[in-house]
């Protein structure tokens, strides 16, 4: 199968990871170009393909797309992962926007100075367990009997919420202890064939950033 | 019940201002409930109205919507301000509003930063407006040549960009001096009937935040600003 998309980013999660998840789940094969130096990013900026001089950049369907949400919205809509109508889309948007808020906190965490890390971690865990996860637990409770978060149909919310759950579990393995329905949801979704494949070693899923990589990444940006 | 959307937020711009702009541009009348005390906010949470314990909250079409982008996307989609197809929506409108959102976010968080940070950040914001964002939109207008950012009719992207331009001009009135097409855009879009009405005194458009607004928000939310706004 020919490659359908090309991703330009550094070799790590950052803002590109959710895009990788969604492409993988949608069954879209993609290639990746990784920046290793600031010069490579500058070269791309000078080429004029980056509307706001920023990455992620995704080449897809003849377009150079930037801005994470625009890219995710496009992939989701094109691959029928965005609900059946406007109100379902609205619900999906509400759920995934919250995951992106939480992901942002996780993404910025390694940039905290060492003395601030413990406090920041506690803050993130607090937000996950007291604000976000209770909300999703309630959603699943309300629609009990349905396998998916919105409209009884697989959507990007069923990809982005598990993505965030897994990231939070890396920070605190028992974070789902008080959320039995989320545990069940996570287990069910992880068995979805394309997600299962993406979760296996050797996939294009990226691991947590290593401490020693942080200075190099910050130099690029 | 009036059937009008009902907006719940602080009595100021913050994250709700873009929603007010978009509803106004779409010619949709709306009601507002202003949070003035922490008790009001806690009651909203207790009543289960806030999915993630956060405002903005917009009661619209039987849904209690939260998350600013979700709200804006819904309004845009409902009122024909989201382009005519997927490409217009994603490649253009979504991309453009993300840029103006990033720019306006910097301005909206400014009053909540420490004084030394405020002094340092304002010039940085103006610099980003002049060197990153406005050149991009100037180029779009130059290439697209239709008077609007996308297609040949008003979209969410146009409303959002006008809002951003006016917000930056409040900080630096000369900011559009190198951008003739943006100047023309600003005049044209400001003169569209629904938007002209919103720009007049007495509309539901909110003024720039002042110390009283900042104090109210901090009193009500009682937590680190970055994480709650």
UniProtKB/TrEMBL annotation, chain A:
Domain (GST C-terminal) ranges: 85-209
Chain segments annotated as coiled-coil in the UniProt record: none
Domain GST N-terminal, first and last residues per copy: 3-83
Protein's name according to its UniProt entry: glutathione transferase
Pfam families the UniProt entry points to: GST_C_3, GST_N
Organism ancestry: Eukaryota, Metazoa, Chordata, Craniata, Vertebrata
InterPro entries: Glutathione-S-Trfase_C-like, Glutathione-S-Trfase_C_sf, Glutathione_S-Trfase, Glutathione_S-Trfase_N, GST_alpha, GST_C, GST_superfamily, Thioredoxin-like_sf
UniProt keyword Transferase present: yes
Automatic annotation (TrEMBL), chain B:
InterPro entries linked: Glutathione-S-Trfase_C-like, Glutathione-S-Trfase_C_sf, Glutathione_S-Trfase, Glutathione_S-Trfase_N, GST_alpha, GST_C, GST_superfamily, Thioredoxin-like_sf
GO biological process: glutathione metabolic process; xenobiotic metabolic process
MF GO annotations: glutathione transferase activity
Domain GST N-terminal: 3-83
Keyword Secreted included in the entry's annotation: no
Domain GST C-terminal: 85-213
E.C. number: 2.5.1.18
Keywords: Transferase
Entry keyword Transferase: yes
Pfam family for this entry, one: GST_N
PANTHER family hit by this protein: GLUTATHIONE S-TRANSFERASE, GLUTATHIONE S-TRANSFERASE A4
Homology family: Belongs to the GST superfamily. Alpha family.
Name of protein: Glutathione S-transferase
